[in-house]
Every structure is written in C-alpha cells, then in structure tokens.
Design a protein that fits this description.
252 residues, alpha/beta, 22% strand
Length: 252
Amino acid sequence: MEEDDNEGKTVRRCCVQLARILQYLECPQYLRKYFFPLHKDLQYAGLLNPLDTPHHLRQNDEFAFREGVTTNLPAKAGKGIVNCGLLHDVIVNKSLPPGMRVTVRLLPQREGSKKLHGEIVPPSCPSVETGTYWGYTVRIAQSLCEVFSQSPYVGGYDLTIGTSERGDKVDLLAHNSLQYHHVIVVFGGLQGLEAALDNDEVLTVDDPALLFDHYLNTCPEQGSRTIRTEEAVLISLAELRTKLLPKHSCTT
C-alpha cells in the first residue's frame, strides 16, 4: 500500500507507519494528545518502551528549557501563551498560531508572582547551550540517493558511514578517529545496502562501499545469519561511540 506524504510524494505505507511511530515516541508525553489523534498506526505504540529522554520532562522536573504547544488563550499584544506541561501556562515573547510545537526557555520567576515567563528559541538551543540531548527529527527518503541529497544541513553530511557484514571491521578504527560536524550512519534491510543501491535510479556505482567515507562491519563474526535492523542500530551505535568525535561540542 502507498499514500502521499505532506509534500504530495507517494510513500510506501510501512514507511509512513514507522515514521509516525518514531515521531510519537520522540514527542513528550504531555504533548502527544495535541499532535497525535487516535490512529491505527499507533494502536500498539503504548507497548513500546518509553524513550524517557531529557526533554521528556515531568511536571515537577526543573530545567531551563521545555517543549510546549501554543494555545489560543488571550495574551497581551506581541505575547503568547504556551502549554509546557506545567501547573501554569507560560507567557512567551511571541504570538504564534495555536497548535504549534515550540521550544521555550524559561525565565526566572518574578518574586511573589505565580505567572511563568519564557521566550521561544530554536529547537537546537538546549543542546547548543547545555549539551543536553534534545530529541530527533524524522524524514522519509524515497531512495538511497535522497538519504544524502536531502540532508537538512547546509553542505550536507561531512562524515558518512555505511554498515554491512561485508564492510571493514570496526575494531580497526582508532579511538576518537572519526571527527565530524554532521554524521550519518546508514543501515540496510534484510538484503543489505546492496539491494537499496540496486533499486536506486539515480546512483550509478555498483558497490555501496563507494558511497561512504567508511563502510563498516560493526558486528564482526556475528554468528547469526542475519541481524535485525533494530538490533544492528543498537550494536553499531555502541561500537561507534568511542570512535566518533564531534568537532565542536554544540550541534545545530
């Protein structure tokens, strides 16, 4: 089955379902009812393990930033009201249409006042200023080529890594040897990245290793005939953790 995405492109139904589940899991729990109405794709999402990432703050958690949703509550000119999952809504420095997800920096509470004030900031701001992981975004690529050509970063990815049992052993890489500003790690399906390359109508190379800066086997001598993608992701990230070195402490 196929359906159209937000840009009118035809996307396989299973890809849309996976993207919706990933977006649901990333969204803080107190915001999900605003952005995820009942949908058959999310019928069993409650059985999945919660991410419990730093931006999934509880009501009594204290942190300088919070995710919120804009409301249609009345406010002074140039101001807006945002629901950040707290006991009281937050008065922010911008008036935006209701129903938008925003990142809010909470300002020090005025003495004797119960009102909360904040300012809307870019979603990258918490990571840039505090180094705290602040969630992920999801995009659907129609082909292996679009994985690279539609990078959300200016200049694309400066470090590309492909994973395959036919790649070089990850153990051969030195500690902190892979420096990057923006890195992408690509995983294949059951038939590997070779199948994705064969189905790509734009790329002309025959060997997927030629597409990447590094083509790695992150589970040498695996023993099992195949490794599920969800398992390969965890294994690979664990192996690459000591190999990767950001060129700066803040990513945008």
